[in-house]
Amino acid sequence: MADDDTPLPLDPERIRAEFPSFRQSELRDFAHFENAGGSYTCAPVLNRMRHYYWNTKVQPGHPFGPSQDAARAMDESYRRLALAMNLSPEWIQFGPSTSANTYTLAHAFEGWLKPGDAIIVTNQDHEANTGVWRKLVSRGVDVREWTMDRDSGHLDLAALDKLINAKVRLIAMPHASNIVGEINPVEDVTRRAQIFREIEVEIAALPGRQREAFLMRYWEEMDVAETAAAMGCSEGSVKTHCSRAVHALSRALKAKGITL
Q: Is 31 helix (H, G, I), strand (E, B) or coil?
């Protein structure tokens, strides 16, 4: 977009000309809507690959010309991708495939998640990406499915609100779904997750008995009698602790601009 928000001109013919494959007669009249694994490659990428195989297919970083060129090309790839994605280069990670990267990430989270922790997945995602998270149910993790609307393909934020609570440690969702072609509101989802993180911080700051009563009543969904028995106090005391906790949380969250 230009500075005045005027859409930049799109020249389909110029863009199509950058894909040598489309010069073949069998492909000339086709429009391709594919995922990354089945896409034709544009000429600049092909030329980079040709240069790599002809000149720099060596171990990078050693004290001779092609190896130094290879190291510079690798550094440049991080810089350019970071620029395109509006990130700093240290956030960029390369791996063999999205599926393999997701498997590695899920395996790392497996050692951090505890039985009873919850994660949220969607049915708008590719099984190769969501399956690794779903398997964590075997480790006692509560796997909750954020189900898309069958008619529209949308992931409704109101449906997410019914799933997310303080037990949720991870929301695994696609930014852009290649199942239904949907771009999801990641910023809104992240904001919801951050609100629950702030709630957790303020709950931890409550006096011990208030925190204990609040968690049992509203997180564990125990009734007043069960909470009183677990805490060894009267039902009236439970109600008092919960009332004070709710008011304290409300004040603390309001001060942070959060209204529930």
A: coil
For residue 24, how far is the Cα from the chain centroid? Answer: 39
| Burial class of 133 by CB neighbour count within 10 A (0 to 12, 13 to 18, 19+) | buried
Helices (H), 164-234: 186-204, 208-214, 224-231
Rounded to two decimals, what is the model's pTM? 0.68
pLDDT in tens, the chain (260 residues): 445 566 667 888 888 889 888 888 888 777 777 666 677 889 999 999 999 999 999 999 999 999 999 999 999 999 999 999 899 999 998 888 888 888 888 999 888 999 989 999 999 988 878 899 999 999 999 999 999 998 889 999 999 988 988 788 899 999 988 788 889 999 999 988 888 888 888 898 999 999 999 999 987 889 999 999 999 999 999 999 999 999 998 898 888 887 76
CA 255 to chain centre: 28
Domain 205-255, classified CATH 2.20.28.10, yes or no:
no
Residue 94 half-sphere exposure, CB side, CA atoms within 13 Å? 8
CATH number of this structure's domain 98-188: 3.40.640.10
Helix (H) or strand (E) holding 168: strand 168-171
Q: How many angstroms separate the CA atoms of 207 and 241, rounded?
A: 9
For tokens 């497996």, the residue is 110
- Please answer whether residues 126 and 176 qualify as being in contact, where contact means their C-beta atoms are separated by less than 8 angstroms: no
Instruction: Spell out the alpha helix ranges (H) of the chain.
Output: 12-17, 43-51, 65-85, 98-110, 127-134, 157-161, 186-204, 208-214, 224-231, 235-255
- Domain range list for the chain: 12-91, 98-188, 205-255
- In the numeric block, the tokens 């992240």 are attached to 190
